[in-house]
Amino acid sequence: MCSVHDTVEFEKRGIPSTTIITAAFKKAADFQFRGKGMQGHPYVVLPHPVSNLQPNEVRELALRFVDEVAGYLKS
């Protein structure tokens, strides 16, 4: 999961960051954060799957999680 790696690298530089995944990748994200020494780092979990959603459904989903994402990015 490159997104976990990117989040860790941003955080090391003092830049608040989070990862957005779907529920199917929760265990993988936990494993990777733990392996990179950031066990318990917060991330956003969307329902799985998202690949079959129509553009308007993706927009609605994004709007449901925007406050959570923004909350993790506050410094």
Descriptive notes:
The protein has 75 residues and is mainly alpha-helical. It has one domain. The chain has 3 helices and 2 strands, in the order αβαβα. Strands 1-2 form a two-stranded parallel sheet. α2 links the parallel β1 and β2. The longest helix is centred in the C-terminal third of the chain and has 19 residues.
In terms of topology, how is this protein built?
Blueprint (H helix, E strand, L loop, with lengths): L1 H11 L7 E3 L3 H10 L8 E3 L8 H19 L2
Parallel strand pairs: 1-2
Structural key phrases:
single chain; 75 residues; mainly alpha; two-stranded parallel ribbon; 3 helices; 2 strands
Total of DSSP H or I helical runs spanning 4+ residues = 3
Average pLDDT taken over every residue: 95
Overall shape: it is: globular
The quaternary organization reads as single chain
| C-alpha end-to-end distance | 24 Å
Order of helices and strands: HEHEH
Low-pLDDT parts are none
Q: What portion of the residues fall into strands of 2 or more residues?
A: 5-15%
Sheet of most strands: 2 strands, parallel
What is the rounded Rg? 13 Å
Strand order of the largest sheet: 1-2
Beta-strand segment tally: 2
Number of domains: 1
Query: Helix proportion of residues, in percent?
Result: 40-55%
Q: What structural class is derived from the secondary structure elements?
A: mainly alpha
